[in-house]
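Hi Q.,

Before the meeting this afternoon, I wanted you to have the S-adenosylmethionine prediction in hand. No need to reply - just skim if you have a minute. The sequence and ligand are here:
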Amino acid sequence: MDLIDNHQIQQERSEPCSGTLYIVGTPIGNLGDLSPRAKSILKTVSLIACEDTRRSGQLLKIIKSKVPLLSYHKHNFKSRQSQLLKILENSGSLALISDAGLPGINDPGQELVHAARSNNYEVICIPGPCAATTALVISGLPSERFCFEGFLPKKQSLRKKRLENISQENRTTVIYESPHQLIKLLEDLSILCGKERPIQIARELTKRYEESIGKTIEEVTKYFNKNKPRGEFTIVLGGNNNNNQKNRITESEALNRLNILINQGEKSNIAAQKIAEETGYKKNWLYSKLHKSLDK
Ligand code: SAM
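Predicted structure with the ligand bound:
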């Protein structure tokens, strides 16, 4: 009954409203995921701000929308702001879309929403697909509480710090990563979280070759060492808890164990191999640290 009532209310509300900014979710692969309401807004607003006019132009062509497009991306969002607010000021309506998914989620949007709200314009979201929540709900990992990290920082020192924090997080964490960085990310997660930590990697969500790969860091690393990562990936990492903590040891503990084995008479390369398997640290890394400490 509630659903029907809500539906009727939506039907009665005539959209688009003047002086309103619509944040519109668009498909992350499958065009069938564009909602009828999103389609209708994209055909009737005064202007659509988008990341890439060529790319969004193709979407508008498919839905037969004649609404003009204006580029709005990370390199011009500041200069575009007043131009876009002017449309709302003149009682027009505005839609913001990104290349795919929900604007504002690792895509341009938050600054424009902030500016619109600061100037007392209405902001309404036409919800649509988002890779993070889509990957989360099919992961089989706890989803009642979760963290979204998006892309990790590029700068090495910041990336390392962020990964250390993620490894300590109790809640499930969602990360976006590019295909050519995926194996490096898995290697780093293996060291910090232990190779038994649950993980589920969603590839090409909603598309023809959609795949979901799990269940531990060790298993997915093996998989991607055999199958070169291609396409778009969303990583869902299980939280830190006592069960999956057992393999996580600090660098100095790992080196300590290595030295104990060697002092017991084990050859250094075999000892490094054994400790690598036990801890998730790379054999070559352990080996190089060992030699550095011998050189001192
Ligand atoms: N705003 C978008 C959203 O709501 O999902 C995210 C934009 S962000 C720039 C793009 C990243 O999202 C990709 O690099 C990938 O990590 C993830 N992603 C987007 N589409 C995906 C898909 N179909 N399957 C898996 N991950 C996807």
